[in-house]
Amino acid sequence: MISEKTKGETLRVLGPLGNGFQYPLSSRLADSNQVPRMILVGGGVGVPPLYHLARNSKKNGQKNKNIHVFIGARQESLLHCEKDFAKLGVKLHLATDDGSRGFKGFVTQILDEFLNSLRSSEKSLKEALRDLSVYVCGPTPMLKAASGIAQKFELNCQVSVEEPMPCGFGACLGCAIKIKDSQSRQKGFRYAMSCCEGPVFNSQEILWD
Amino acid sequence: MMKTSLSVKVGKITFKNPVLVASGTFGYAEEFERFFDLKTLGGIVTKTLTLKPRVGNPPQRVFETPSGMLNAIGLQNVGVESFIKDKLPFLSRIGVPIIASVMGYSVEEFHKTVTALDSAKGVDGYELNLSCPNVDYEKQKPGATKRATDEVEVDRPAKMFAHDARMIQEVVKAVRKVTQKTVIAKLGPDVSDIAGMAIAAEKSGADAVSLINTFIAMAIDTKTQKPVLKNKTGGLSGPCIKPIAVRMVWEVARSVRIPVMGMGGIMNTKDALEFILAGATCIQVGTANFVNPQVCPEIIKGLENHLRKQKIDGITKLIGRVADS
Q1: What is the average pLDDT across A87-100?
Q2: How far is A163 from A145, CA to CA, in rounded Å?
Q3: Distance from A102 to chain B by nearest Cα, in Å?
Q4: Could you tell me the pLDDT band of residue A120, with boundaries at 50, 70 and 90?
Q5: How many CB pairs under 8 A join A and B?
Q6: Do B58 and A166 touch (CB under 8 A)?
Q7: Segment A32-57, tens digit of pLDDT
Q8: Which residues of A are less than 8 Å from B71 in CB distance?
Q9: Within its chain, how far is the Cα of B194 from the centroid?
Q10: What average pLDDT does the segment A138-161 reach?
Q11: DSSP per residue over A20-66, as a string?
């Protein structure tokens, strides 16, 4: 629809709506050469918001070596923002379903491998891992898989969920997502509105289907 | 400039203009405060309230269809008690008539819900949401609908109040006993005789009828081979239902004397005029609020401009005008 617009046409835009990724502005720890501060994981059209996350983090002082970006797509031509990330200078890890570029398989597989390689009994590395946050944006199965990996390695993880949103500002109650709620009268869950309370959530909060 | 009036009266309520927001599409109004001055609205119909709070249906609750959408929100609402305490104060401060949409799973629940609201300050009237599954009826035996037998079952139990004229009468009568305020019966379109349903509501003491609610509809995901909505079916709304809604409003308006509130896919001033010409005293805008949160003030202005251009001094002159042609 947007791609069919021509010069001079008017678009009505409503925003900004909802919340964004919360990224650290400073850390009490010295930079590690092995463990990054931020791991960004993106799939398909979920990648552009991660580009802006990387860019803004750098604007706020984050160093290139502290940002690792994992991008996955069905094939090479669908790997979005690769050039943009390269220009920023962050570390890129690529995966394509068909192997046309980078690792042949899912981006979550190379994420898992990378995190495994960081695992160590060394105390300083363990501390550095606690300071690491994972930011995920892409199709729901990818969000789920990445959350599972983050949980396995006990990492902070934020996901930007993809729910259908008729209104986008909390009126229609359409974009419900099941989240943990110990206070609720129901069986420990409630439905949050992705458009207002999200779309970024702490992955641990979400009760995936 | 010529003085024009958009004012209309329904039951005991005088609306300064005939543009109301439809139940379920405007939350409890706070969410729209940032888009326009709520005081410009003719009136607000709240999200349907139930006696106890409801969590609503599991996702997926919504799905876009050509020129419309499906919804199976599941009547998620804070419940009557919390509504009176937490939502009604803001609503009553806006300064426009507030119509509480209510639903009960039984006639008794309708009765109890309206009773609870009637003592609260700020509610000007009720819209009875009759399109909820009726649990009073004996549950159909499983497999009964699978194959046609030699004998055709003529009177199958209705799935909701809105599908049965006698149930409509029971609910409206029960509510009428409890309140002096304006009572509007909201009719569902999945019936073969919408006028008959409206007549039943009128005979039972409703001050007005509002129609149409959503059509029960469905979408199937061909990849997963499952219904798109977790609830399997949902309500269809939006421009795609407008022609049927206009026809139904026209049929009902010539069958009852009480005012008709028309709705179903209204997206702009022209659509609103169609319903008014068909016989609607008021219109309600629903799905359009999601497309353009400022649609209602735009329609109100549009109606004003239309009256001025046509040199008509009051919107009431247009109600049911199509009948004269």
Answers
A1: 96
A2: 17
A3: 28
A4: low
A5: 66
A6: no
A7: 878 889 999 999 889 999 999 999 99
A8: 166, 172, 174
A9: 14
A10: 96
A11: -----S--SSPPPSSS-SEEEEEEGGGHHHHHHHHHHHHHTT--GGG
Which of A169, A173, A186, A190 should one mutate to test binding to chain B, selecting the residue with the greatest count of B CBs within 10 A? A173
**What is the C-alpha to C-alpha distance for residues B152 and B1, in angstroms, rounded to an integer?**
64
By residue count, chain A amounts to: 209
Catalytic (active site) residue B240:
no
Q: pTM here?
A: 0.92
Per residue in B204-261, pLDDT tens?
999 999 999 999 999 999 999 999 999 999 999 999 999 999 999 999 999 999 999 9
Interface probe, candidates B32, B55, B236, chain A, greatest A C-beta count within 10 A = B55
Answer whether B292 sits within 8 Å of A12, measured CB to CB.
Answer: yes
Q: Residue B325's pLDDT is what?
A: 58
Percentage of residues in chain A having pLDDT higher than 70: 97
Out of A12, A171, A177, the one facing B27 most closely (by C-beta) is: A171
Instruction: Please name the helix (run of DSSP H) or strand (run of DSSP E) that holds residue B81, with its range, or none.
Output: helix B79-82
Nearest chain B residue to A185 by CA distance is: B55
Quote the pLDDT of residue A117. 87
Q: Measured in whole angstroms, how far is the alpha carbon of residue A64 from the centre of its chain?
A: 17
> Which residue does chain B place closest to A168, by CA atoms?
B290
Predicted ipTM?
0.89
> What DSSP string runs through B217-244?
EE-EETTTTEESSTTSEEEEESGGGHHH
Q: CA of B53, closest CA in chain A: separation in Å?
A: 10
pLDDT-flagged residues of chain B (< 70): 1, 132-151, 153-155, 157, 324-325
Catalytic residue, from B132, B240, B282, B296: name it. B132
Q: How many angstroms separate the CA of residue A174 from the nearest CA in chain B?
A: 6
Separation in Å, CA of A7 to nearest CA in chain B: 23
What pLDDT was estimated at residue A119?
Answer: 73
- Containing B285, the helix (H) or strand (E) segment is strand B282-285
What's the token pair of residue B190? 């999945």
* Inter-chain touch B292–A166, beta carbons under 8 Å: no
- Let me know: does B98 contact B92? Beta carbons within 8 Å: yes
Q: Report d(CA A158, CA B71) in Å as an integer.
A: 28
**CA-CA distance, B4 to B310, in Å (whole number)?**
11
Write phi, then psi, for A158 (nearest 5 degrees): -115, 135
Enumerate the β-bridge partners of residue A6.
none
